[in-house]
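Please produce the structure of this protein holding glutamic acid.
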Amino acid sequence: MTTTRFAPSPTGYIHVGNLRTALMNYLIARKSGGTFILRIDDTDPERSKEEYVDAIKQDLTWLGLHWDRVERQSDRLDRYAAAADKLREIGRFYEAFETPTELDLKRKKQLNMGKPPVYDRAALALSETERDALRAERGSGVRRFKLEHERIEWTDGILGDISIDAASVSDPVLIRGDGQVLYTLASVVDDTEMGVTDVVRGSDHVTNTATQIQIIKALGGTPPRFAHHSLLTGPQGEALSKRLGTLSLRDLRAQGVQPMALLSLMARLGSSDPVALQTDMAALIDGFDITRFGAAPTKFDVQDLFPLTAHYLQALPLDAVRDEVLALGVPEDLAEPFWLMARDNITTLADLAGWWQLCRDGAEPLIADEDRDFIAQAMDLLPDAPFDGDSWSSWTAAVKEATGRKGKGLFMPLRKALTGQERGPEMAALMPLLQVVRARR
Ligand code: GLU
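Below is the modeled complex.
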């Protein structure tokens, strides 16, 4: 049975980068009929905020990424303490007292000597008396996990065979001096105890994975399968990290991006399968294959979401957007013809307002000087209201007959006179909705 988890820290709004992680874990679970856990990584009481927990749930719900259960790390502190005790008992846990400044100095020295900046384990050499003295002077130290210096290997679901020399990695800090449990310990305890079988996360976690594999084994567990997806960059390959703040899911929603457009892009971007709009979750689940993803950084252009959104909206029936249409003030009986007329001419639902305003209030006519007489003549031939689906063709036929104009020279000035624009919906579909012209006649 597959179990995956999405494990955001509630320290901010989730963005497109997080979404990729969430979606892949969701799709893997759903594809195999497994369980998808939403795990809130909130062991940092200062930075974790309840409003972000709520926001994360709202964002996932908006996207339709439903979780089977929620787990909160802040509810499981006793489990982490028990794991820490076990690591201490088996001699894989030690206290270290270096200040951040001291550690920084050590790192600089190592780099100057051309050595990798790995923690030198000086704390392991402390005697009991020295430890007591340091504790009295500086308070409790951090608790580090003592890595076994061996090669740590796994077959990554995206990166393939990975081998990391544990000696090139610092012994990870699992608990801070003030007792706060850090992510590495909490995460391995949860992954083990919750029976997580597959962990997909960003490639910035590859080194963490190496240390976590050792910790899981030290605790007597079996490591899950790991897959590390590449990180997103901007369209030119530039780092996205600084801009992720403006690429939060709520910003995208506010910009009118449709969930299926966003999910369709994210389920394929960076894979060898082409991006294709999927209109429902089942198709997305069906078409997902993590082995198709590559290790190279993945270019993301927010602009790609808008054609997909437009494409998605074009195929929707009124029922899917009835509330939004009625909210504009469109009368019930016009809702369907209005939607069918407008849906091909919008990028997001926000664009509907402009088309409804045109229908309701009319537009300032756009009439070129050389067309003035022509338009005056045409307006005299405008059939009586109410207009119907034939009004445009019968009107243009009459105008053609009276003026001898045809083709673009006939249609374009009429469109511009009625709509004030050169482009827009089919005039035959728009005319029956033009309330003002109808009212004026
Ligand atoms: N809270 C961690 C993060 O957001 C989770 C990483 C993981 O998936 O293990 O980076």
